[in-house]
């Protein structure tokens, strides 16, 4: 069992051009307000993520500021938030929370690890 959270990821989920535009707008606003890294905007499922997505990466100590802000500003986007402990299976199954609707992940991605 991991003993330390090094970072967090918030994955913005969307599945069409309208959702992509909403995710891009939310990521841009988040980047203006917080110290975080915005990843690529995928237009296909990637890794364990069942929908198109974009990853926001931020320091563990910023959780209390960023996650409530995302909850209040997410609009219709669903957001998958997970810890970063360097144990990918744990991080994506035990250290998670959802803002909006939850979606089943493709955990087979971690079988090769």
TrEMBL record:
Keyword set, alphabetical order: Dioxygenase, Oxidoreductase
One Gene Ontology MF term: dioxygenase activity
Taxonomy, superkingdom: Bacteria
A matching Pfam family: DOPA_dioxygen
Keyword Oxidoreductase on entry: yes
InterPro entries, A to Z: DOPA-like_sf (IPR023389), DOPA_dioxygen (IPR014980)
Name of the protein in question: 4,5-dioxygenase
Organism this protein belongs to: Cobetia crustatorum
